[in-house]
């Protein structure tokens, strides 16, 4: 007989992450770093005209939406930025799913998955900033007292800063994707040039 006490008196509850980890409330689970981009893409409808798109076409579309989101954010159009970031996230998810199916370029697959999470986070941050800026504007229009306006203004500024920070992270990932794609294109061109 074992010396091990088989009576367990205290159970530990294990929970994923902590405050700030994973999706925020209201979102379904859309996958993580080990799910290959497939659950994320299934959470987003692929419009009829995009069903036959390659991963490259999805990455090109994501890049365009990321640039539009960044421009909108810099001019203070947080709601527009949110929509562009979320659309970019959808394209990253579909690119990752295509790459997972093809089994090609694991680094690009991983970077597209990271792009999905980063773009969604940037979209969420832009949404919060949009809400806080609108709350300040509404209070200003309704003639709120100076103290309330000061607090709402500080909250809006902090939210905008968080949105810019999240957008910077997402844009850095977009730059990595662009650099990797350029490197792959150059690497593919060299053997073709040598065989010519």
Question: Please, could you describe this protein's structure?
Answer:
By secondary structure, the chain is an all-alpha fold. The chain has one domain (50-187). Helices cover 69% and strands 0% of the residues. It is built from five helices and no strands. Helix 2 runs antiparallel to helix 3 (78-102) and helix 3 (78-102) packs antiparallel against helix 4. It is elongated, with a radius of gyration of 22 Å. The model is unreliable at 8-21, 32-44 and 192-196 (pLDDT under 50).
Chain oligomer state = single chain
Radius of gyration, in angstroms, nearest whole number:
22 Å
Identify the overall geometry. elongated
**Uncertain regions: pLDDT < 50 for 5+ in a row?**
8-21, 32-44, 192-196
Count of alpha/pi helices = 5
Brief rundown of the structure:
The chain is an all-alpha fold and 196 residues long. The chain is built from five helices and no strands.
Overview features:
196 residues, 5 helices, mainly alpha, disordered C terminus, elongated
Protein topology:
Blueprint (H helix, E strand, L loop, with lengths): L37 H5 L12 H20 L3 H25 L3 H36 L4 H50 L1
């Amino acid at each position: 007989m074992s010396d091990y006490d088989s009576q367990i008196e205290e159970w530990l509850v294990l929970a994923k992450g902590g405050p700030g980890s994973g999706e925020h409330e209201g979102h379904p689970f859309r996958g993580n770093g080990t799910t290959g981009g497939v659950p994320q893409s299934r959470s987003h409808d692929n419009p009829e005209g995009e069903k036959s798109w390659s991963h490259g076409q999805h990455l090109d579309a994501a890049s365009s939406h990321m640039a539009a989101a960044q421009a909108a954010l810099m001019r203070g159009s947080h709601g527009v930025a949110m929509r562009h970031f979320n659309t970019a996230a959808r394209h990253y998810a579909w690119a990752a799913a295509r790459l997972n199916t093809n089994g090609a370029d694991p680094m690009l697959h991983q970077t597209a998955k990271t792009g999905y999470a980063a773009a969604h986070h940037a979209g969420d941050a832009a949404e919060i900033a949009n809400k806080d800026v609108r709350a300040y504007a509404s209070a200003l229009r309704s003639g709120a007292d100076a103290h309330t306006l000061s607090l709402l203004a500080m909250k809006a500024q902090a939210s905008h800063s968080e949105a810019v920070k999240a957008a910077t992270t997402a844009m850095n990932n977009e730059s990595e994707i662009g650099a990797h794609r350029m490197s792959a294109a150059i690497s593919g061109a060299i053997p073709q040039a040598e065989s010519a």
